[in-house]
């Protein structure tokens, strides 16, 4: 078998390849464009499609954001001739009304909506691609990421005025697909909540019932919760890490259940579900909101195999003391191998690790720039 890992950092895209998930060859930063500007670009989003070998990367340079595509597993790259996404010119500018009540000072903004950053890319069936963008918006491509259509239904949701920016910025940062359920998609929004469509984005329903907050006037708001990540297991159960506890939803319309009782802290960012084993999820807790380093300065993945009822530390091969790197919301993934999935994560210290299922963590890379996203796939 051969494996490819995409490592998006604040200073470009790095790639790692291996035949055994133990010994790795690292290359980068990649020059996605001819002039090399993307070698120092912020890479917040990447996506892999093992069925086709196609890879997409969202890069933000001083020329603005764009999406680069590779059809040969990150060997060569193409950028669309024109900007792949732009807000409708007649779309009224909508400031973040909730920011005033949340006590968050917003910087001066232009009077028009401008695509600032691509936070999430996800492949669908055929040539379908979804993109989550800052400012808070969802986009759809049916030509493999060359051009994108703005989803106005989510933008026009009546709860939009309750969405704040969060510390990272106002964005659709998580897109969860539902294989076998055409037209169904779940998205998570910075300080906005979780929304789901079952009609391919024509309408959206908030599904954040039961997720509480301790940073606002209402402990159980209808919307506006700060969601850090959502993942879906093989049985269709959703798991979420919020700015506070982790949660599980067997049926989102029935509400969410707190599953943080046996985690070392309530706070965290990344959460990844096993591709084939229902009820198995990994999380990377960090210290409480004002700390944001691993508990007791020991980096570890925490794993549940029973839908979050019990969590255990998985740290074999990881530094056992004095480690302060945090795993961000897209800094972890699996390679999706149904027989023996590999797990991967990177930290803000620039370190990346990989492990076979239930195995030993092996270092993929060390001392890279701040790791923002990690994506992996089997290539042979």
TrEMBL record:
It comes from the Bacteria. GO terms for biological process: xyloglucan metabolic process. InterPro entries: WD40/YVTN_repeat-like_dom_sf, Xyloglucanase_GH74. This is BNR/Asp-box repeat-containing protein. It comes from Glycomyces sambucus. The lineage of its organism: Bacteria, Bacillati, Actinomycetota, Actinomycetes, Glycomycetales.
């Amino acid at each position: 078998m051969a494996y490819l890992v995409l490592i998006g950092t604040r200073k470009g895209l790095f790639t790692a390849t291996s035949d055994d998930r133990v010994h790795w060859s690292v290359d980068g930063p990649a020059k996605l464009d001819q002039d090399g500007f993307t070698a120092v670009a912020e890479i917040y989003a990447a996506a892999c499609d093992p069925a086709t070998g196609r890879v997409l990367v969202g890069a933000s340079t001083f020329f603005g954001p764009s999406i680069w595509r590779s059809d040969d597993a990150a060997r060569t790259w193409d950028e669309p001739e024109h900007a792949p996404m732009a807000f409708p010119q007649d779309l009224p500018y909508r400031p973040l009304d909730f920011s005033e009540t949340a006590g968050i000072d917003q910087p001066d903004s232009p009077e028009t909506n401008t695509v600032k950053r691509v936070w999430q890319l996800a492949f669908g069936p055929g040539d379908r691609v979804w993109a989550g963008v800052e400012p808070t918006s969802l986009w759809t491509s049916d030509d493999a990421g060359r051009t994108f259509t703005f989803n106005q239904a989510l933008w026009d949701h009546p709860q939009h005025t309750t969405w704040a920016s969060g510390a990272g910025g106002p964005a659709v940062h998580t897109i969860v697909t539902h294989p076998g359920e055409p037209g169904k998609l779940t998205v998570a929004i910075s300080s906005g909540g979780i929304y789901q469509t079952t009609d391919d984005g024509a309408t959206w329903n908030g599904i954040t019932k039961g997720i509480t907050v301790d940073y606002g006037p209402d402990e159980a708001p209808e919307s506006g919760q700060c969601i850090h990540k959502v993942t879906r297991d093989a049985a269709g159960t959703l798991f979420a890490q919020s700015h506070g506890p982790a949660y599980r939803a067997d049926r989102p319309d029935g509400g969410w259940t707190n599953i943080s009782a046996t985690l070392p802290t309530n706070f965290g960012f990344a959460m990844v579900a096993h591709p084939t084993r229902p009820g198995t999820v990994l999380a990377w807790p960090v210290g409480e909101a004002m700390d944001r380093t691993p508990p007791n300065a020991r980096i570890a993945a925490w794993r549940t195999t029973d839908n979050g009822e019990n969590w255990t530390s998985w740290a074999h091969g990881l530094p056992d003391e004095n480690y302060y790197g945090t795993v961000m919301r897209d800094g972890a993934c699996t390679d999706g191998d149904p027989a023996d999935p590999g797990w991967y994560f990177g930290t803000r210290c620039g370190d990346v690790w990989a492990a076979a299922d239930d195995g030993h963590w092996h270092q993929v890379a060390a001392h890279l720039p701040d790791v923002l996203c990690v994506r992996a796939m089997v290539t042979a």
